[in-house]
Amino acid sequence: MSSSSSRPPAGPAAAPATDAGGPPSSAPAAPRPVLRRPTLAAKPAPARPAPPPRAPRPARSPAPPSYRTASGAFVAPVRQVPAPATGMVGGLLTSRLNKRMAELGLCSRREADDWVEQGWVKVNGLVATMGQQVTAADRIEVDKIAQGFQEQRVTILLNKPIGYVSGQAEDGHTPAVALINPRTHWRDDPSRNRFSPPQLRGLAPCGRLDIDSVGLLVLTQDGRVARQIIGEDSEMEKEYLVRVVYPAPGQAVARHPGERSAPLQEIDERDPVSTNVQAVFPKELLERLRHGLSLDGEALKPAKVDWQNPEQLRFVLTEGKKRQIRRMCELVGLKVVGLKRIRIGRVTLGNLPVGQWRYLSPNERF
Predict the structure, then answer these.
(1) pLDDT > 90? residue 22
(2) Which residues contact 192 (CB under 8 A, 6 or more apart)?
(3) What is the rounded distance in angstroms from the CA atom of residue 224 to the CA atom of residue 237?
(4) Between the N and C ends of the chain, which has fewer C-beta atoms within 10 Å?
(5) Given this model, what pLDDT does residue 59 score?
């Protein structure tokens, strides 16, 4: 056998050497089929509409007179003067709706805004809008829903003891509202109200009573009551018992209103008299307490000041500057050693024990 015999060539031209089990065939071999991956025609991309031409940017208008230009690229707004609360319509003076409702005693200004927002207020039969101007001739109606909410709000009278602040907690001292709970509710309260936790929601003091002063503190959920007692135009009387000593003329040094004075003592109308201050205190200085003093550069309104007993004065004020009674006394040489509030308007402290509270009765009015 020759070694030069070659293998059949590979590829499509090669043919098999024999049929299965037979001699070689003399016919030409058929070409072997070749499998090819079909070619897919690419889909044409959808045509996108051309964007519309941009409009030319308008030129920047000059800044209005109420603006101050800080630089070429920055315009800083100037604080605007608020619109006046009053105006004129048809020759009649107007005021904001919330202010008018407060003046009529319907509610506080904040409550009025809440009611207007809820759609509970109508002016001349039409639903009111926030900030609306009204005249004294306009008819204001309040929905019964709002009146129902108002009737559920409570006013509480507390005999505040020493050591509690009247408002928010400060310097680690507890606010007086912490005393409003079932355990401290006066058992002889003539009101039929019963305590419930929702009565603490929004309960706020009407006026200040210093940490070492005692007596009547009013806390309320009712904006009408708050406005009566501490509103801008309120002239409600507040009555105090003030125990004093008279060291000597000129020895009681006047203090700044924010400066803390010496702690005061508990005071009671039945306390025994140990010093006859009335006998040595000049009458002309008592007249100055009644009228003629100034605090913080402003003349004080006339006050009623009389002797309750030889070492206690009774003050009746219609204003409430910070630490007013102590500072008034210091100006005439007196030193306050005890202070107790016993009346606000027509509501008195009465027999309410120290540290206890009661509800304002339906028949009581400030």
Answers:
(1) no
(2) none
(3) 17
(4) N
(5) 58
- The alpha carbon of residue 228 and the mean position of all alpha carbons in its chain are separated, in whole angstroms, by 19
Tokens encoding 191: 């009101």
pLDDT of residue 274 exceeding 70, the answer is: no
**87, 133 Cβ separation under 8 angstroms:** yes
- pLDDT tens column, 189-244: 999 889 999 899 889 999 889 999 999 999 999 888 988 898 877 889 999 999 99
The two three-digit tokens of residue 70, written as one number: 């800080």
User: Which has the minimum average pLDDT: 15-24, 80-89, 270-279, 324-333?
Assistant: 15-24
Least confident segment among 38-42, 149-153, 285-289, 296-300: 38-42
Judge whether 133 and 95 are in contact, CB under 8 Å: yes
User: Which of 161, 200, 159, 155 is closest to 177 using CA atoms?
Assistant: 200
Q: Tokens for 226? A: 């708050």
Assess whether pLDDT exceeds 70 at residue 299.
yes
Backbone angles phi, psi at 336, to 5 degrees: -80, 130
User: Angle 60-62-63 (CA atoms, 0-180°, nearest 5)?
Assistant: 115
Residue 322 in contact with residue 208, Cβ under 8 Å? yes
Task: Give the pTM.
Answer: 0.63
